[in-house]
Amino acid sequence: MELVADRYRNQIRGHALRMLRDQEDAEDAVQDTFVKAYKAIRTFEPGRPLLPWLMRICSNCCVDIIRGRRQGQECLDRHEHAIFDTRADVESGVESKLNIERVREAVSRLPERYRRIIEMRHYGHMDVNEIASALNIPEGTIKSWLFRARALLKKDLQVALG
């Protein structure tokens, strides 16, 4: 893995810098990328190009870092716009905290298998391949369950957040 890191480090660093626009965060993302790649090497398909796989891992690491920059807000990836009000005043902050609680309540109402993967993905910041490996379930199934879980959450929250 050290040879792989040496070979692709500059390309991964450049990608992280473009996404994060911060040297320290980019270095963190590069390190996280290679750690996650090492842990997930069993899921890599021989014969496929390595760089796109590493870039995808790096992108996910960068997204996690960007999420970490947002204090007091948790999101559900693509559905964040339907859940949170982004106004910056105090009233909005209180409203945002209430929305976070509503999201947590909606997640708790999901069927067990959906709730578990939502928690692993969005609160545990695990990648789909990490979830699949941890649960010993195919990645495609995890993706399908995530899609269904998010659809159920969106439907539930549209009523709650009206």
Describe the structure in brief.
With about 160 residues, the protein is mostly helical.
Verbal overview:
The chain is an all-alpha fold. It folds into two domains: 1-69, RNA polymerase sigma factor, region 2, helix turn helix motif (Rna Polymerase Sigma Factor, Chain: A), CATH 1.10.1740; 74-162, Winged helix-like DNA-binding domain superfamily/Winged helix DNA-binding domain (Arc Repressor Mutant, subunit A), CATH 1.10.10. Helices cover 75% and strands 0% of the residues. It has eight helices and no strands. It has helices at 2-20, 23-39, 50-69, 80-83, 90-108, 112-123, 128-135, 139-161. Mean pLDDT is 79; it is low at 71-75 and 77-91.
Which descriptors would you attach to this protein?
8 helices, 162 residues, 2 domains, Rna Polymerase Sigma Factor, Chain: A, 75% helix, Arc Repressor Mutant, subunit A, globular, mainly alpha
